[in-house]
């Protein structure tokens, strides 16, 4: 019955354990004075310690510590809180796990001092059980860290999607769609939708799709561009694809992509000049200072 | 599906393509390999575009693929193997032809990819999968 031993140590030696947990963390270089004040760091380990001790106390009648048991519910909540706080300030996933694991050594030392059975079976069993518990706690920390990071990635992805498909009005009846980055199927669909609705909203006759910022034009991107241009034409407007760099032009020719009747221009500037000509718009640039 | 001997050069990266974002990630890795050899922009673009076609085929037709990138610094080549365990290609000659597609694409991918690179080989066994090996000179 090793659980009572662990319980007794956690219960009676709280202050010295907390102190040593913190100093083990310090030895491992985990005390981030740049990120947390000493008081904050102390509060964090206390937040974890108390529900841990409570869980062990509740398991004292059990033969072993079951990490899946409901008695760890409070510990899980505390872990989620501390992990979120620490990762938000920039603590790495690995450091977060080591932060928890650092409790092992002070506790093991105390177990060795207090469990004095002759052949060491009880001590071994106690260490094995506590290791299993703390390892699963550290693993849980890692899972929280990853889940938090996934959330951030998803949020950034969503934000980028919105950012990535702006339609700008360049002039009366002329809109531009500057594309940047990669054009996957989902984004291509958004580009198509925002372009077509801009034709209606801005009463556009010419849509310039600028691909200067698109690094790779493969057949899928080409197909999306061709489709968008075709849809623009169906709405009675005309599409000009601009920003075709020499390297993209060469690659597209070798790929065998046929842009057909779609007008293409090397730069946005040329496309705009073209649009002005077509709409019979004269843009006169007067020198303000005059010569 | 593993018919080819290991590609020349030293390992650079291994990636798994399971979703569309992996296609971008993997072709960026190929771009980095070309950068490592100090490739000119046009050569880098050609290889990256070619592998983009092949990786997407691996995803769309092969149901996912495994990518191995190696660097042959002496020869200034980047080698890319893309292996899938899809249904395989029944008629390779037809598949390589421009304008032929069993899907919804433009039907330019395989032939186009071949024209963009220095080295291109494709092996396919029905019911087992397809392996494509490409290489571009930096």
TrEMBL record, chain A:
CDD domains: STAS_RsbR_RsbS_like (cd07041). Residues 164-275 form the STAS domain. PROSITE patterns: STAS (PS50801). Keywords: Phosphoprotein. InterPro entries: Bact_StressResp_Reg, RsbRD_N_dom, STAS_dom, STAS_dom_sf. It comes from the Bacteria. Gene3D superfamilies: STAS domain. SUPFAM superfamilies: SpoIIaa-like. It holds the Pfam family STAS. This is RsbT co-antagonist protein RsbR.
Automatic annotation (TrEMBL), chain B:
Transmembrane segments: none annotated. One of its GO terms (molecular function) is kinase activity. SUPFAM superfamilies: ATPase domain of HSP90 chaperone/DNA topoisomerase II/histidine kinase. Residues 44-134 form the Histidine kinase/HSP90-like ATPase domain. Keywords: Kinase, Transferase. The keyword Transferase applies. The keyword Transferase applies. This is Serine/threonine-protein kinase RsbT.
């Amino acid at each position: 019955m090793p659980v009572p031993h662990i319980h007794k140590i956690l219960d009676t030696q709280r202050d010295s354990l907390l102190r040593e947990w913190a100093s083990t963390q310090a030895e491992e270089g985990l005390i981030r004075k740049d990120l947390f004040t000493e008081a904050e760091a102390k509060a964090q380990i206390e937040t974890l310690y108390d529900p841990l001790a409570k869980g062990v106390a509740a398991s004292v009648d059990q033969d072993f510590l079951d990490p899946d048991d409901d008695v760890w519910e409070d510990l899980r909540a505390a872990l989620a809180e501390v992990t979120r706080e620490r990762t938000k300030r920039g603590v790495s996933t690995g450091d977060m796990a080591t932060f928890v694991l650092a409790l092992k050594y002070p506790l093991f030392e105390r177990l060795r001092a207090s469990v004095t059975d002759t052949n060491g079976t009880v001590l071994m069993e106690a260490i094995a059980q506590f290791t299993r518990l703390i390892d699963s706690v550290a693993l849980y920390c890692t899972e929280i860290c990853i889940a938090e990071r996934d959330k951030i990635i998803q949020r950034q992805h969503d934000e980028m999607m919105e950012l990535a498909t702006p339609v700008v009005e360049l002039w009366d009846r002329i809109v531009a769609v500057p594309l940047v980055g990669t054009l996957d199927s989902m984004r291509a669909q958004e580009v198509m939708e925002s372009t077509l609705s801009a034709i209606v909203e801005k009463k556009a006759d010419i849509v310039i799709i600028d691909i200067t910022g698109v690094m790779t034009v493969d057949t899928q991107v080409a197909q999306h561009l061709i489709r968008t241009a075709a849809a623009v034409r169906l709405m009675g407007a005309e599409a000009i694809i601009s920003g075709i760099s020499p390297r993209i032009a060469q690659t597209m020719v070798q790929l065998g992509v046929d842009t057909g009747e779609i007008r293409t221009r090397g730069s946005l500037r040329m496309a705009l000049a073209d649009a002005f000509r077509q709409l019979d718009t004269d843009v006169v640039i007067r020198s303000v200072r005059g010569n | 599906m593993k018919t080819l001997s290991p590609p020349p050069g030293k390992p650079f990266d291994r990636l798994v393509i399971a979703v569309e974002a992996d296609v971008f990630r993997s072709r960026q890795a190929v771009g980095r390999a070309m950068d490592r050899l100090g490739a000119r922009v046009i050569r880098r673009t050609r290889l990256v575009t070619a592998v983009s076609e092949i990786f997407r085929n691996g995803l769309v037709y092969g149901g996912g693929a495994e990518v191995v990138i190696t660097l042959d610094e002496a020869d200034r080549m980047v080698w890319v193997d893309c292996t899938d365990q899809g249904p395989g290609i029944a008629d390779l000659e037809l598949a390589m032809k421009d304008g032929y597609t069993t899907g919804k694409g433009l039907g330019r991918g395989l032939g186009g990819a071949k024209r963009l690179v220095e080295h291109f080989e494709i092996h396919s066994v029905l019911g087992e999968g397809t392996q494509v090996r490409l290489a571009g000179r930096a």
